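Most newcomers find our protein records easier to grasp once they have seen one. There is nothing in a record beyond a sequence line and a structure line. Getting from the letters to the tokens is the skill we practise here. An example says more than a description, so a record of this kind follows:
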Amino acid sequence: MMELSHSLTLNEEALVQLPESKRPVFVFEWLRFLDKVLIAAQKNDIKGCQKKLVEQLTQRIQECPGPPTRRLVARCLATLFSVGDTFLLFDTVNKCNDILRNKDDSPSFLPTKLAAICCIGAMYEKLGRMMGRSYEETVQILIKCLRSAESQTRIEIMITLEKVCCGMGSAISNMHKEMYKAARHCLTDRVMAVRCAASKCILEMLNHATFLHTTELESLATLCFRAFDGSNYEVRCSVSKLLGGLIAITQQQPKANQSAVAQNKGVKPVSLEEALTVLMSGFLRGGVGFLKNTGEIIKGGSGLNREVRVGVTHAYVVFIQLMGSNWLERNLNTILAHVLDLVANPKAASSHVDAVYARKCINFILRSVLGRMLGEKAQISAVKEMTLIVAKQMTSIDFNPENAKDCNQETLFGQHLLVCALQEMACLIQSLGTTASNLLTSSNLVDAVMAVLIHPCQAARLAAAWCLRCLCVAVPSQNTPVIDRCIENIESMRSSPEAISGYSAALAAVLGGVKLSPLGVPHTKGKIIFNTAEELLRSASQNSRLSLNRTQAGWLLIGAIMALGVPVVRGLLPRMLLLWRNSFPRSNKELESEKARGDAFTWQVTLEGRAGALSAMHSFLMYCSELVTDDIIRRLLTPIEAALAMLINISSVLKNYGQHLKAPAAMVRLRLYETLSLLPPQSFEGSYTHLLRLLVAEFTLSENSANTTTSQLRMACHSDDSVILGSWLQETDHRTIEEQLQPNSAAGSGALEHDACCLFRLVPQGEKIPGPLPLGVAVIDASVVLFGCVFPRVANKHRLQMLEHFAECMKAAKSCRADAVTLNVFAALLSGLKGLTDNKAGIGQDDVKKTATSLIIGVLTNSSAMLRCAAGECLGRLAQVVSDPRFTAELAQTSFDRLKLARDVASRTGHSLALGCLHRYVGSMGSSQHLNTSISILLALAQDLSSPVVQVWALHALALITESGGPMLRGYVEPSLSLALKLLLNVSQSHVDVHQCIGKVVSALITTVGPELQGNTASVCMTRSSFLCACAIMQDHQEPLVQAEATSCLQQLHLFAPRHVNLSSLVPTLCRTLASNHLLLRKAAVSCLRQLTQREAKEVCEHALTLAGENRDSDSVEESGLPGVLFSMLDTETDSRLIKDIHDTLTS
């Protein structure tokens, strides 16, 4: 039937015969066909039927089309008038204007109004000045409509004004002021999608209205800062393009456009310094001035608005990218000095966390610009320039002991500049590899970095240590000389606490990098460093001013030696065991006498020493697992049990000395948990009772007045849940700065000074620089992980006690604290349930099962999305552990009953997800009788147009069920697919997450049908064309997230029905995507290309070359073909999955 839609004019007879539900798809298919045909048509081809076509298309406007349909109608009308005659053009414009004048505000008339606005925009964009003087009337009608319009109309009007501007250029300069006034208002709209549309409209105006970047420059910049306030990720991306574009235009040479020059006679050009000052005011003030009158309290209590700062950070990058790499090379010194000075400004760092966030922003600018835009030669110049900045900063520090007391302000803020410069130098040196050896001969790089090792602030010393590690990994011949210099300096500067701390950190960092270089270091180095470390520990008690630094340094070095591996450590093991044994009290009696005599400082040193001993143990277990025999475990457990006994017994000491010992005691607990997590859980079974008390107190915050939450929950939840948690931000290039704006997440606040041991540990995958989280979060994280190891081995009685205790803690806590406690408890519970599954253990007796169930179901309707998601995940895991069909059926029935009655969003979303998770973990075979009920309920919820949130969760759950359903789901493909198409054709495109979830459902449905898609029966052809239609709608969506879903759906289709996927249009689209600014899109495109090239490598390369012919800009494809483009991506991409896919594509 759909083939009948492929005709130049709409086949109205065929349309009438179709059932009502199929007609919108038939019309959409016709419009898709028409769109392709008209572009290639000649005037003569359409002369005979143009009148009828115009009539049919304007008729579609009246029939309430959805977003994708109205865009196609608009495109077809515009193309029709540009290819054919224009005799009906003004008639059509007048019809659209009449629709806009209509005062009907009913929801049923809205789609017609939106379609009319959309058509006007498309015609102005395509036909430009052929539209004559009609623009004045049109613009006035649109602006008038704006006053009383709801959000979708406001979005559509902004898009149309942008297109009017684009098509008419400077011909409508008399209307620019009015249009700007309307767009200004929308830029701070309460609906985020309206802000995005307004920013795109003003961005287009920048090209035509000179007053925007001359007289209005500062007020437009301030307006952008206001638009960032309270924004989401999409708004920050859009508005930063506007702000970056605005600043870039002030720096670009004016084109030889005489009229523009004449207008600008009285306006003096903006210097680079002035332009950068505009951005700086936003970064430092966070636009704080305009918020004073509104009485808003900015989060974090500091005078700085983080959303504004992150937005301005995006804008810096956009500005420099627009100016291009040649400009950057010419102005490198100015840009580096300016960007690094930002972070040294006292306003950027009003607290430690703020300073860490500001440093992340600065490093993001430097990485995006220096790492992605410069060639090797320019990168080497950048490292040299930063070396000079670092050296200059160090010479300005006053090391005089009289002034060291108040560690003057400049030094305190200057440390952040040093950290940023050294981290970027480290990244550049790492990517330059052996080429970096040129730097050693032509600049005093090593000396400049080594000088920072005696800086008064720890953050700067650790950054310098990390930079030295990267240098030694890039140029392995530096390993031995750097190690020797550090050992010498520790000996010669024994009386300087900073030198001991700095040089030992550098040694530890370099030792951690040795395993990454093929040659390693001489075997005896390990022994020499061990002697140095032992000497530091031995002499710690001789001088109280140095005892803390010497203790920390000694253990840090011993931990780092472990990273050299078994050959070095084997000979040192007896000495290590002795050191460990002597670090802890041998008996309770010894412990009691310790408690009686120490003062606060002695305890601080003691606790630091014990934390250090445990961290060296952790390092030993991590790097030398071959040496860990039963006998060694037994000998390690003696000091470990002593540490546990001490932690339980020193509460009185901690009470006496209060805040002073809080951090060292937390550090001991962190190291204990980390160490135990690496030992076999059965080896310390005797200590479970005491240990569990500590762990449970840790994550239920019973001893902790702050509402600290774990960072483990997002990771503990399934990666597919990213769409309902918003954690897909992890898949963007902006992750490092966007993390700091995520709710209840310590992500983004990681910094080396939180845990110096990360200098020698393995860097987490995907990270360039280790960013250990603050101590408070790290301890809770470690307790959650260890709880997961221990829970499966605990007796039934204790499991029950703990679950009941969790329920009490959650009940007793109030408001924010209740959320924090619940979040931590659920992270631990998930960790425990995962442990049970991994150990193939049961949940225990019925009482445990009941308590766990009621605990979980209570949270399924929590107001926090994060907690509902965790509860759904726990429910699925619980059903998996119990693995009893009756129990699963009861859980499903509970959710059915709630969903049939509930009207609140929390219940409908939580119980929808619960159904999805039950299927995910038990599989549909385990709950076959419920498959029908689950799907019918979710299909109904997915149509709840009044609540996009409910739609998202219901569609997400539907995707989970479809993925796990297997062949039993075949009967539900048609109703699910027709719902997906209906939603794609009707849901507003501003609800990106709904479209994203529909994409996931479509992808799962394609897998369900599988190889059947190759068939030729009428029903299969119909299903296949519906899939292709869904993909086309998603490909045409403006949001990268949805386009990426379309790409992965087409990839699935190609897997099962390769003949039916049109490579001649798909491959050029994928090649265009390779240059996208969006990581998600690049990943999806490369993943798809990888699959296509395994079957049809030659055709793919030929299709890629057609792109070069059509687009003069993409000379890269023209010069070197698709392989060349992929090779050039390897220079700049950092995502490990993406890099692997590029390798596979090139070698396939």
About this structure: The radius of gyration is 32 Å.
